[in-house]
Write the structure tokens for this entry.
Amino acid sequence: QQQVKQSPQSLIVQKGGISIINCAYENTAFDYFPWYQQFPGKGPALLIAIRPDVSEKKEGRFTISFNKSAKQFSLHIMDSQPGDSATYFCAASIDTGRRALTFGSGTRLQVQP
Amino acid sequence: ETGVTQTPRHLVMGMTNKKSLKCEQHLGHNAMYWYKQSAKKPLELMFVYSLEERVENNSVPSRFSPECPNSSHLFLHLHTLQPEDSALYLCASSQDLLAGPYEQYFGPGTRLTVT
């Protein structure tokens, strides 16, 4: 049973546009929601993360929007650049216990120049 | 570099071979993880170690055998694998399991092909 559903599977955006990736979760015990970025030949790296006590977190061009009632969260990349082309994974974990991450299936983003 | 190294980066093995994947972290972390990454599927958590003790085994077949001799090193021993085991195997570490921060640092992975 996949506990974190991610969409779309792939995304093509023009340079300067907004990239939006969505995730939905099922386990209401999740309370930590990170996004990881993975370039070819590299492992995933933490990009930005949010906890459910806030509805939005922004770091530079990257913003997480969180909707607790809908059990959804999304990543917005403003002014998308070709260097943002990568695979993005949303994830979730519980704030106690082992804290291992449950990942979404990934979104391959291509930003065209 | 993330401070987590993995060797080898690529491995091709037959179904009757025995091989091992190695992971080393230089971050002073106490928790280490093995993940399997297959195309178009979520990263699958395989094993979790905390202070060299295995704390989680996510129903992984016995043909995968992890070993954590110390908090800096993690191995994944492979034997009699199946072609469907071909994937990217990622190692990760985090500072701790029972206290923050939560960030996991991933190695570059070992691309495994089973023939």
